[in-house]
Design goal:
Layout lengths: L3 E5 L10 E5 L6 E3 L20 E6 L3 H5 L7 H12 L6 E4 L6 E3 L7 E5 L5 E6 L3 H5 L8 E5 L6 H14 L5 E6 L12 H18 L7 E6 L10 H5 L3 H6 L8 E12 L3 H4 L4 H6 L3 H5 L2 H11 L4 E10 L10 H18 L4 E5 L22 E2 L9 E2 L3 H11 L6 E6 L21 E7 L9 E6 L13 E5 L11 E7 L12 E2 L16 E3 L3 E5 L2 E6 L8
Parallel strand pairs: 3-20, 4-5, 4-14, 5-9, 6-8, 9-10, 10-11, 11-12, 12-13, 13-14
Antiparallel strand pairs: 1-2, 2-3, 7-8, 15-16, 17-18, 18-19, 19-25, 20-24, 21-22, 21-23, 21-25
């Protein structure tokens, strides 16, 4: 017999949104969310961008992903098209560290050429005219962010690349230009002032050369985590979007968006590699870590607009991920949680998951060398790290695509564990009785803000396929969010036999797999009238309560 107690959330902003019933053991077993069901008055995000879940592809590896007109990569094209059909085409950033060693050659016969020296180090990349035809293989309506070389301090080279991209793709495809990748890591000792001294005239002069009369540039692309507390002199002096704007970077009115990069874990050196483990990845999608960006984001929005901040590059483990961590179903759980929690914590308009390969000149102490990155959502070609394949994490992006669908007005708020008075999501130390393992998010459409259109439920409790005990679950009672008793709702689940699973054919979203780039198998939806659902450990559930736009 299960005995339980009722716990009231301690956060003032969330106290009336959820009550928690727990058994007398250590784990959460029953969760009742009490409402009210209407959209909260505060801590609700702006309407979600349909292309919220987007991609950053390393410049040097772009044609490995897309192929070319003669030999298009069917797997990649199917995977991109599948996401588009569920709502909108993801945006694609062409960038990363190799963008700062990429030049334009109008006489080059091939679209992309990588010069690799005798030791196997990729030294530079050259693009030719046919490269733009490879970009055009992306699904129709895909918008592209093109990163230009800043580190070489060669304005003419950056201008030549911008002219070539503008001519080859045009304003219907180019969303914006980005000058430089992670300039806060350059050996040039950049700070906000000397960065701005270059960035501002470059952006103005390139705009004039292309006859662009509106903001078309993405500033920043910095990667160092914000210092805390944010209101110290050291934090204010840190080189980032805010300090660059304060230094006058937008005096020429060229800035459209601000980008920052986030990697919570790393294998760039042994010390950080030691903590880049699967349990840490899955259980530590730290809201406190995401909250570090809140002051910057508020400042950027106040200056540039509500949709001006993006996470322009992110993934689980920098320096190309970690085998048996970044290529597992655990990464899928991390990715869906990362996107959903990031949106609720910091509300970027888009997030760009990075895809590429280990680079010999990135770090002298890094764990990975050669092939494609372990954190990629799929391998488009055979390489030393594995054959052509789709990894479990791709299903996380399908989850997000189905969640947003083609809605233009979907807003979200955290239901459980809720928010603190200062806007931060509750963490274990501040009253989350699930110890950070469980979260519920509501999604309201402008057509009906009295009840959510959808609920996303994440159970991050670790469960491996090798476990010798039954898979735990949490029963969620969401009946307070039904518009009438007995209302029929549908549920789709992202699951695998365990977080340690690496195979896409053992990972399912609504009963389907995506090993060939298209959905295979019968679509499985659970129809619920009780207002309750069991959510297994290491799984994510999307509940549709109103007649929304869900791909089928």
């Amino acid at each position: 017999m299960r005995s339980s107690v009722i716990l009231h959330l301690v956060a003032a902003a969330a106290a009336h949104y959820a009550f928690v019933a727990r058994d007398t053991g250590a784990s959460l077993s029953l969760l009742t969310i009490s409402g009210p069901a209407s959209i909260p008055d505060q801590w609700t995000t702006p309407p979600l961008n349909r292309a919220l879940a987007s991609f950053s592809i390393e410049t040097a590896f772009f044609e490995e992903y897309l192929g070319n007109v003669s030999y298009p990569n069917t797997l990649s094209l199917n995977l991109f098209q599948n996401l588009k059909e569920r709502g909108a085409a993801p945006q694609v950033r062409i960038g990363g560290i190799t963008a700062d060693s990429t030049t334009w050659n109008p006489s080059q016969d091939v679209g992309l050429y990588n010069y690799i020296n005798a030791s196997g180090a990729l030294i530079n990349t050259t693009l030719g005219p046919s490269f733009w035809n490879s970009v055009k293989l992306l699904p129709e309506s895909t918008r592209v962010v093109m990163t230009l070389d800043l580190e070489s301090l060669n304005y003419t080279g950056a201008l030549d690349m911008a002219k070539a991209a503008w001519t080859g793709l045009g304003p219907d495809i180019i969303s914006r230009f980005e000058i430089g990748n992670e300039p806060d890591e350059y050996p040039l000792d950049f700070d906000a002032k000397n960065y701005t001294a270059l960035w501002k005239p470059w952006s103005v002069n390139i705009s004039n050369a292309l006859d662009i009369s509106y903001p078309e540039f993405q500033i920043g692309a910095t990667v160092k985590d914000p210092l805390w507390p944010y209101n110290t002199s050291q934090a204010r002096a840190q080189f980032d979007c805010v300090s660059a704007l304060a230094a006058g970077a937008d005096d020429g009115h060229t800035v459209k968006t601000c980008s920052e990069h986030t990697y919570q874990y790393s294998v760039c050196d042994p010390a950080r590699a030691a903590v880049a483990t699967l349990p840490n990845l899955v259980l530590n999608v730290s809201v406190r870590y995401l909250d570090l960006w809140q002051p910057r984001i508020h400042s950027v929005r106040s200056q540039l607009g509500s949709d001006a901040f993006v996470i322009g590059e992110f993934n689980s483990v920098s320096c190309s991920g970690r085998d048996n961590v970044s290529n597992t179903f655990g990464q899928a759980m991390w990715l869906v949680s990362k996107v959903i929690r990031t949106i609720n914590s910091t509300s970027p308009s888009s997030v760009y998951v990075h895809q590429g390969g280990p680079l010999a000149l990135q770090s002298t102490t890094q764990l990975n060398h050669g092939g494609l990155s372990f954190y990629n959502l799929w391998y488009p070609v055979d390489n030393i790290n594995g054959p052509i394949q789709v990894f479990p994490a791709y299903s996380a992006y399908v989850f997000v695509s189905d969640l947003i669908g083609d809605s233009m007005s979907l807003q979200t708020a955290n239901i459980f564990p809720g928010r603190q008075v200062n806007g931060s999501s509750i963490t274990t130390a501040d009253g989350d009785p699930s110890a950070g393992q469980f979260s519920i998010y509501g999604y309201w459409d402008h057509s009906n803000t009295d009840y959510p259109a959808k609920l996303a439920i994440l159970n991050l409790e670790i469960y491996n396929s090798t476990a010798t005990y039954s898979r735990p679950n949490v029963t969620v009672d969401f009946s307070a969010y039904l518009s009438y008793p007995g209302q029929v709702v549908t549920a789709r689940t992202m699951t695998a036999p365990g977080t340690d699973i690496k195979e896409a054919n053992m990972t399912t979203w609504a009963g389907q797999t995506f090993t060939t780039g298209v959905a295979e198998g019968e679509l499985v939806e659970e129809y619920i009238t009780s207002g309750q659902i069991d959510v297994a450990a290491s799984s994510a559930v999307l509940i549709t309560l109103q007649n929304g736009n869900v791909y089928s």
